Amino acid sequence: MASKNEVTTEKIEKVYTLDSSSAGEVKVADDVVASIAALAAGEVEGVSGTTGSIGQKLMKSVGMKSGSGSGVRVDIAGNMVRVDLALVMKYGYNVMETCRKVQDKVKSAIENMTGLNVTDVNIRITSVTNEPRTDK
Prior knowledge:
The structure is a single chain. This protein has helices at about 30-40, 55-60, 95-115; strands spanning about 15-20, 25-30, 45-50, 70-75, 80-90, 115-130. It has a single domain (about 30-130), classed as Cation efflux protein, cytoplasmic domain (Alpha-Beta Plaits, 2-Layer Sandwich). Helix 1 (about 30-40) packs across helix 2 and helix 1 (about 30-40) crosses helix 3 (about 95-115). Mean pLDDT is about 80; it is low at about 1-10 and about 65-70. The chain is built from three helices and six strands; from the N terminus they run ββαβαββαβ. It is of the alpha+beta class. The protein is about 30% helix and about 35% strand.
């Protein structure tokens, strides 16, 4: 038992078994799936970044900017994944076209890297930045 002055920092995270074989188990934490989603979304032209703690840390670590807010959430049931993303868009990009690209990229990245099936990639635009377009 921890004393009054001791702080325990055990993090409880959800972990999902992807595969069990004679060689052992492959497990993935839900934070890993959220990280894959945030990184994939950030690769799409027109996305400034994701918002929230996971997105901010990831985007900062790869040299991208992000705002603040709710971020990336994944719900995993069995081998099915639902992703909710809060994005910051760059000004001047078509929202629907960019979001479709994000949905395709996130779905593909998660399915290719984990073998899980992505059922939904829901996107909420939280803000727009005045960063200039880089594709003109």
